[in-house]
Amino acid sequence: MKGETAHPQQRRWRVSVHGIVQGVGFRPFVFGLAERWHLTGFVRNDSNGVTIEVEGEEQALQSFVHALRTEAPPLARIEQLRVESLALVGDKEFVITASQSQAQRRTLIAPDTATCADCLREITDPHDRRYRYAFTNCTNCGPRFTIVLDVPYDRINTTMRDFPLCQQCQAEYNDPRDRRFHAQPTACPACGPRLKWSAGDTDDPIAAAAEAIAHGQIVAIKGLGGYHLACAADDEAAVSRLRQRKQREARPLALMVRDETVAEQLCQIDPIAHTLLTSPARPIVLLTRRPTAPVAPSVAPGMQTLGVMLPYTPLHYLLLNEYAGIIAPGRVAAIVLTSGNLSDEPIAYEDNDAHTRLAPIADSFLSHNRPIHIRCDDSVVRIAAGGPLIIRRSRGYAPAPITLATALPCPILACGGHLKNTFALGRGREVFLSHHIGDLENLPTLRSFHEGIVHFQRLFGITPEVVAYDLHPGYLATQAALAMPIERKIGVQHHHAHIAAVLAEYGLDGPVIGLAADGSGYGPDGTVWGGEVLIATCATYRRVGHVRHLILPGGEQAVRQPWRVAAAALSQIYGSHFWQMDIPFTRQLDQTAWTVLARMIERGVNSPRTSSLGRLFDAAAVLVGLGQIARYEGELAILLEQIADWSQPPYPMPIEESATTDTPFTLDGLAMLSALVDDLRQRVPPAAIAGRVHQGIAHGLWLACRRARDEYGLTTVALSGGVFQNAFLLELLTELLGSDGFTVLIPRLAPPNDGGLALGQITVAGACVG
Ligand SMILES: [Zn+2]
Ligand SMILES: [Zn+2]
Question: 125 CA distance to ligand 2 centroid (A)?
Answer without folding.
Answer: 17
